[in-house]
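User: Sequence in, structure out. Go.
Assistant: Echoing your sequence, followed by the structure tokens.
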Amino acid sequence: MKKIILAALMLAGAYSANAQVDFGADLVSSYVWRGGQLSGAAIQPAVSYTAGDLEIGAWASYALNQDMTPEVDLYASYAVGGVTATVTHYSENTAPYYRSEGLEASLGGEIAGIGLSGNYMIDSGAMYFEAGFGLGGFDVALGAGDGGTEDGEFGVHNVSLGYSKDKAFGQLVYNPDADQLSLVFGLNL
């Protein structure tokens, strides 16, 4: 992973004249990812460096009540002709000297107003696909894969309806595979 980050930083240097750094954080009532509720309330900081079509960044989630170990994810994305390729390194610190890690390759784009993404976990071979679109001011998404299901078989595990206004956002998420319903509220800090 260090080699990937170093290569991305070298590419970013070539675009430094148009570079932009962005940072922020969200405070969320629960951390729900791809239909699965991973923790309760959390603070989720992020930082990114964008130069032209290249973006390098980090995102993290820290549970406020310590019901989940900290997660810190590094990524690099490059957009070409409406398609974005991303490599993400997921890292969850499960103990003082142990980390659970995974590497994911993703492709995403938009066709006729519908956002599409395909994600492949390189280490485990798990796949996840999602389609999302806007509907009357709401964001609707449907996701399916074999990494987030109870039995490891391919299935739908993310049906969500979201809304945002100013610095607040909310999302109702249903996971049909686990028969789990989550309501998330968040604030952009």
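User: And one key feature?
Assistant: The CA atoms of residues 20 and 50 lie 5 Å apart.
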